[in-house]
Amino acid sequence: MNLDDLILVSVDDHLVEPPDMFDRHIPAKYKDRAPKVVRTDDGDDVWTFEGSVIPNIGLNAVIGRPKDEYGIEPTAFDEMRAGCFDIHERVKDMNASGVLGSMNFPSFPAFSGRLFSAAADKELALSVLQAYNDWHIDEWCGQYPDRFIPMAMIPLWDVHLAVAEVERNAAKGCHSITFTENPAALGYPSYHDDYWDPLWTALVDHDVVLSVHLGSSGQLVVPAPNAPVDVMITLQPMNICQAAADLFWSRIPKHYPDLKIALTEGGIGWIPYFMERLDRTYDVHSSWTGQDFGDLRPSEAFRRQFLTCFISDPVGVKNRAQIGIDNICWEMDYPHSDTSWPNPGEELLAEGDAAGVTDAEYDKIAWENALRWYNWDPFSVRPKDKSTVTALRAESPGHDVTIRSMEKGRHTFEHHGTNLAELAGKATA
After folding, report:
1. Which residue of 49, 174, 269, 355 shows the fewest CB atoms closer than 10 Å?
2. Nearest-5° angle of CA 368, CA 371, CA 373?
3. Distance in angstroms (rounded) separating the CA atoms of residues 124 and 153
4. Count of domains in the chain?
5. What would the pLDDT profile of 171-210 be if each residue is shown by its tens digit?
6. What CATH number corresponds to the domain at position 182?
7. Pick from 158, 157, 156, 154: nearest CA to 166
8. How many angstroms separate the Cα of 160 from the Cα of each of 3, 12, 201, 286, 312?
9. Cβ(312)–Cβ(293) under 8 Å?
10. Which pLDDT belongs to residue 109?
11. Which domain holds residue 95?
12. Does a structural domain hold residue 90?
């Protein structure tokens, strides 16, 4: 495989919502109460909603900056690369890196939309959530239907409203919802409760993927509050591992075998051992725990309905056959700190070539699985031969992808020694 033939579709990127996103979508009676961006005395741009103040933590928008400027300090829009919040600049950044398609998780409402779900006024919360979805699907994705996989949030506080929102957005061609990795942590019924059954039925009926992003419950694996932030970053995949176990042994795989579940930004290197552990647990304990998958081994049931995703994972790529080549998707994670932008194709090919990945396997990992799982067809709009890394880069010649220092110098990003308690304080200040 080479860049002339490689097509890239990322199933995990993010956007920094622009300040005017609600202007054209919120009902008039809620215009004054819609989320708004304000600039603090420190010069940070923060979102405010019903008494909550949500800064954009630096690591969420460090694209294009040198690593020694990474940090957790809040940022302003003029300190970010424009592609974080400007759809046209985002497409140029995608062209310059050779990426055809992208699915974008939300930022200020949190990955699962839990900010809106926590609002006391549920009528307001629903209006804001629907306005967000309309902006995201109709405006952000709608301007470039051949470049963006639409995604919707749902009202977590009411399963019947959630079903209605799935149906409303599926009618627009949206086949992905972002959901929390642990609803119980947010005070809602767990995956093991039949409360969610109407939602699972709606997702199956409308071919919508349950996309579960790490950190979407607001809880991360933290052994000690004064541990350095490196501990949390290292253990991030463990959040998805926990969610995978909770989901797999829940009612869902047995009662809803056609429900598609994506485990986002958790890596794939741990998956072979995880599936071995599922089988071992089943063999040793199912006679008394009552688990029953009929003729399937648990590892087979896992492959049937779980999609696993990675940014850079040499161990996982080497073990792709054990995971299942049809169950792996690639991610770029733009504009977060783990991103492979602006040279994702080169990084993926280096990793894959070292593992002996074939052209057919590259196609599945890099784009075919994403199109199939998310029921998305960019080639109905754009010719396939104009969708490769090389072809896309030719569409934005000279687009500046230089890694450059932040020139304003307002924030010093002195973050050495930051611990988890300090990070939590900055994220909720």
Report:
1. 355
2. 105
3. 15
4. 1
5. 999 999 999 999 999 999 999 999 999 999 999 999 999 9
6. 3.20.20.140
7. 154
8. 46, 27, 11, 33, 38
9. no
10. 96
11. 9-17+86-396
12. yes
